[in-house]
Structures are given as C-alpha cells and as structure tokens.
Amino acid sequence: MSLDVPTALLERAEAGPVGDAEFVACVRDSLPYAWAVVSEVAADLDRDGGDFADHAVPPPSEAERGQLLRALASDAIRGALERHFGVKLAFQNCHRVAAFPPSAVDGERYRAFVSTRGQLLNQSPELRDC
Q1: CB atoms < 10 A from the CB of 106, how many?
Q2: 31 within 8 A of 67, measured Cβ to Cβ
Q3: Domain ranges in the chain?
Q4: Do the beta carbons of residue 65 and residue 94 sit within 8 Å?
Q5: How many CA atoms lie within 13 A of 81 on its CB side?
Q6: Residue 118: phi, psi to the nearest 5?
Q7: Tell me, what DSSP letter sits at residue 19?
C-alpha cells in the first residue's frame, strides 16, 4: 500500500522540501492502522513511563498488515513517526511493534528486542507466512 498523497502535497514536494507535519499527516491519513498501532505504543510508553511498550496483536487483515509493513519498512515514514512521537520504534515478525524512549536505545531491553536472538525467540509456526 502506497501513501495517498494529495495533489497539493505532491506539488510542494516537487518544488522542494516538505515539513514533517505535512508528511506525518499524509501518513496518518494513508495508513490509519499503522498510525493507530504506533500511536498506541507511543501513548502506552508515555503513560507507563517505562523503557518499553509493545503491540503484539496480529493485524485483522492483510490490508492492515501491509500498512504496518509499509510504515515500518520505509526509512522516511519510520523516521517521521519516531520524530513525531519522540520514540525509537522497533519491529519484529510481521506485526510486533515496540516503542522505546530514545534514551533506552543503548539499553539491555532494546538491544535484546532488536537482536537476532530476540527475533528467533519470537518465531512460531503460525507466523511463518505472515
């Protein structure tokens, strides 16, 4: 799933740089499921004040899974979301999204989440084709 870029925003991008606020609004409107998941983990992290919050519920359909993959596989989208929410995002499997405060990136929990071991330990047969 690509972004649904309004004509006016595309014209501004053709003319020069576009600010994060406009880009983030385009992402929010184009990828509502991904936006909801990232918003949720960022809000959970902010509310709970810990060093980690995650969302591990599989998406309800392939369309939503596609949104999540698109948002987190794109450096531009992921970076804009991280700046907007003030978090560092991490991603496992095809749906597990975690948010960390930037100060926790060098911490044990973040390193464990993004490690090859962490990825291997979060595999299961039902996720093989996700």
Answers
A1: 8
A2: yes
A3: 32-127
A4: yes
A5: 32
A6: -60, -40
A7: -
Structure-token match 């809000």, residue found: 43
In the three-class reduction of DSSP (H, G, I as helix; E, B as strand; rest coil), residue 98 is classed as strand
Indicate the residue type of 47. R
Q: What is the pLDDT of residues 62-105, one digit of tens each?
A: 999 999 999 999 999 999 999 999 999 998 876 789 999 999 88
Q: With helix as H, strand as E and coil as C, how does 59-88 read?
A: CCCHHHHHHHHHHHHCHHHHHHHHHHHCCE
pTM: 0.86
How far apart (Å, rounded) are the C-alpha atoms in residues 40 and 46? 10
**What pLDDT band is residue 21 in, cutting at 50, 70 and 90?**
very high
